[in-house]
Design brief:
- By secondary structure, the protein is α+β, with helices and mostly antiparallel strands.
- It contains 5 helices and 26 strands.
- It is elongated, with a radius of gyration of 38 Å.
Amino acid sequence: MYAPLKGYMKFLGGGRNWLILVFSLLLAFFMWSVMKLSRNYSSYMRFQVSVTTNIEGRKGSAVAEDVLVIGAKSTGFTILQNRNDNEIAPLLLEGVDAKLFHKCGAGEEYALLPDDIRQLVQDALGKDIKVESFATDTLLFRFPLQTNRKVPVRVRSMISYREQYMPYSDIAVRPDSVLVYGDEEIIGKISEVNTRMIKVKGASAPVTGVAEIIPVAGARLSHGEVFYTQEVGRYVEQKVKVPVKISDMPSYANVAIVPQEVELRLRHPFGVAAKFDIADFEVAVDYNEILVKDAVKPKIVKQPEGILSVVMDPVFVEFVL
């Protein structure tokens, strides 16, 4: 082989060795960096804190005027990411107890001590960052006043009951009303709030639970859910025939009722010794209604305590004047 060609081949072989050496060094540096950055280190991190809360009569969210500086332990990757961001990392704390905020004077400013929300901060940061200390001693927030009004909670339900069982009471909720916050133009149109549908099938015992209140667009509610309960139990049914009387009828009037009596189908709790008769009830119609209507619905003006429900048959009676 010619001498110039041999020299060129030798040069190429040496170049490959250099490339392999450089690549090996870069790979070693990369592996070393990954190993070092995967370890935990203590460092300071900065966060812009925003909160949601429920201070009565105030806006429900705010952003801290100060940056929260946290002494934390985390991996090198996380620390570098926190330091290299062009903007301070956001940190949202939801549902902060209103009792933790301290009013500053008579204005809109409230103070929050980081030590009081340590667990909330830790939960929001997750497992990758362990909070060790706070370099910021106080966070200040502004919560402007908001218009509010109190409205009732309307329960929406689809509850069926096991055979021979029925509700002993209506569904009760706690709280039964909530405060609605927002612009007057919005909350002025709100007369009530509704729960999501409560669905129970074949109930044979007290029904209890928590129902979410359906959010209202453009408004904030003082409560997001309500506790509900309804007494349910077994019943016994009994039938009683009762004559229909006419109230406020003048002495000169002569009126015949058709039919002269109605049947009451009663339900009362199982296990309660009860036997009702005609004397325990009084059913009547108003004479003034007879003069203007062809048929009138009698009203039960007297009945014993402890009855769960009463169904009347027939529902309407007629008259012959």
